[in-house]
From TrEMBL:
Its EC number is 2.1.1.171. Residues 1-23 are annotated as: Disordered. One of its GO terms (molecular function) is 16S rRNA (guanine(966)-N(2))-methyltransferase activity. InterPro entries: DNA_methylase_N6_adenine_CS, RNA_MeTrfase_RsmD, SAM-dependent_MTases_sf. This is 16S rRNA (Guanine(966)-N(2))-methyltransferase RsmD. Signal peptide: none annotated. NCBIfam families: 16S rRNA (guanine(966)-N(2))-methyltransferase RsmD.
Length: 184
């Protein structure tokens, strides 16, 4: 079972797609958001949840005060689950995009304060690096990027416009943080 950890929807359950996703555990989300809130004010933030799956990261951000979350998920069944979760939780300020992350980042549109990228473990380093480079033009001046991967995969290749902040392991999972460079 996956549920929202804290905020206005704290304790509420999320439906999870039947297969092909790996929701971020409550323990990892709790630690991740504790650290995130020390870096950025989520109140009013524009959030992007790439490789969204059940949407646990984006919905957690909305529950904690983000103004809007855009969820990008390539699997149609998972995108349908995302729509159902948004409706069930009563979050109207969501956009659900049924596209591959690689295609989404090539487009133009709103800018984001926080970007979560939790790709399937099978996504390779080059593909992830391309997605991270592609999202740079849509980041606000102080944007934070958070990438969750298998610990064995290592830190992603960050674009030159962002700087690595920290990395934390949680068993087989590792979370990597970066922020837009000052003047970047």
């Amino acid at each position: 079972m996956t549920r929202i950890v804290a905020g206005t929807a704290g304790g509420r359950r999320l439906k999870v797609p039947p297969k092909g996703t790996r929701p971020t555990s409550e323990r990892v989300r709790e630690a991740l958001f504790s650290s995130l809130e020390s870096l950025v004010d989520l109140d009013g933030a524009q959030v992007l949840d790439l490789y969204a799956g059940s949407g646990a990261l984006g919905f957690e951000a909305l529950s904690r005060g983000a103004a809007h979350a855009t969820f990008v998920e390539s699997d149609k069944r998972a995108a349908d689950v995302l729509k159902g979760n948004a409706k069930e939780l009563g979050f109207a300020h969501t956009t659900i995009v049924n596209r591959a992350a690689e295609a989404f980042v090539l487009g133009e549109g709103e800018k984001f304060d926080v970007v979560f990228a939790d790709p399937p473990y099978a996504v390779g380093d080059d593909e992830l690096a391309k997605v991270l480079r592609g999202i740079v033009p849509r980041l606000t001046a102080d944007a934070v990027l958070i990438v969750e991967r298998a610990s064995r995969s290592g830190e992603p290749a960050w674009p030159e416009e962002v700087e690595s902040l920290r990395a934390k392991r949680y068993g087989d999972t590792a979370v990597y943080w970066a922020q837009v460079r000052a003047g970047g």
